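A brief tutorial aside. Many learners find it easier to grasp structure tokens once they have seen a single protein encoded end to end. The record that follows does exactly this for Asparaginase domain-containing protein. Read the sequence first, then the structure, and try to relate runs of similar tokens to stretches of the chain.
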Amino acid sequence: MDQLCIVTTGGTIDKIYFDDKSDYQIGEPQIGRILDELGVAFRYDVVPILRKDSLHIGDDDRELIRATIAAQDARHVLVTHGTDSMVATAKVLARIEGKTIVLTGALNPARFRGSDAEFNIGTAVGAVQSLPPGVYIAMNGRIWDPARVRKNVEANRFESL
């Protein structure tokens, strides 16, 4: 992997909660801080394009994400994205050829102790370096084909269709 392009779109991974868990905003992307703290041995660029909860990402936003990734020189792209509509965005990104694109996020904000953010990012970084071109989802310690996975909201995890 020459260089990793990281596209951030918001989602729980970047959320900041205030007085209670229902009052939040999407903060600065956390992935650069996480990768710096972990001392990774690869170069990366962070391209922040949205700060939205994925329930508020629409077709125009997905097209912006697709166009942004398609315009990058990098062949390896990691996308941080909210989990609720990650699969829908992955299906739009499948139209991009010649790149390995891995979407990941978190079920708990990266700022929370015990968040799954670092684990999911690590899984996604390994996947984006080793998989052939295509679009994948890295969540819950697994790599998923977006056409064969869904988020089980009640169980708060991804599972095969």
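Self-check: The two ends are 31 Å apart (CA to CA). If you spotted this yourself, you are ready for the next section.
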